[in-house]
Amino acid sequence: MPKSRAGVGVVPSSYERIWAVVRRIPAGRVATYGQVARNAGLGGAARLVGYALHALPEGDRKVPWHRVLNAQGKISVRGFAGAEQIQRRLLEREGVRFDKRERVDLQRYGWKKG
DNA sequence: GAATTGACGCGGC
DNA sequence: GGCCGCGCCAATT
């Protein structure tokens, strides 16, 4: 099947691929944009991940976007500051702890294949 | 079709 | 440890 992407109605975009990776993130764990980008096969296109997540539908309950942080283990989210609070709360609810600087220990909560 | 932007990452200072 | 510049791919204007 060469370029026969006509299978399912196409591939709307690489977004779904990114979302698929984010969906694989287990609860209580967080992944960085770069990691998601790599797992999605986008290489170092970390920006795409953020762009794709921002394009998520409002009823995205299948995509734990709140488990995606930047390489600094911090919440980025632009546009809606309230999202930071929501994201942090969701993560804390899963057992992820934040330090005073609102940062997560990626070495401990970082998403690992195993 | 070109230029700009966008929830970033990494190396260097 | 923080700030600066360059690079990445895709979507939008």
Secondary structure blueprint with pairings:
Elements (H helix, E strand, L loop, with lengths): L13 H10 L7 E2 H7 L6 H9 L13 E2 L12 H12 L12 H4 L5
Helix pairs in contact: 1-3, 2-3
The structure holds a DNA duplex (13 and 13 nucleotides).
Protein described:
Helices cover 37% and strands 4% of the residues. The chain is mostly helical. It is globular and about 35 Å long. The N terminus is likely disordered. It binds a DNA duplex (13 and 13 nucleotides) through helix 2, helix 3 and strand 2.
Give the tags.
DNA-binding, two-stranded parallel ribbon, about 110 residues, about 5% strand, mainly alpha, disordered N terminus
Amount of beta strand: under 5%
User: Mind telling me the C-alpha Rg?
Assistant: 15 Å
Secondary-structure-based class equals: mainly alpha
List the strand order in the largest sheet: 1-2
N- to C-terminal distance = 32 Å
- Note the total helix count: 5
Task: List the uncertain runs.
Answer: 1-10
Q: Tell me, briefly, the overall form.
A: globular
Beta-strand segment tally: 2
| Helical residues, percent | 25-40%
N-to-C series of helices and strands: HEHHEHH
Tell me about the biggest sheet? 2 strands, parallel
Q: Average pLDDT, to the nearest integer?
A: 81
Summarize the structure.
With 114 residues, the protein is mainly α. The protein has helices spanning 14-23, 33-39, 46-54, 82-93, 106-109; strands spanning 31-32, 68-69.
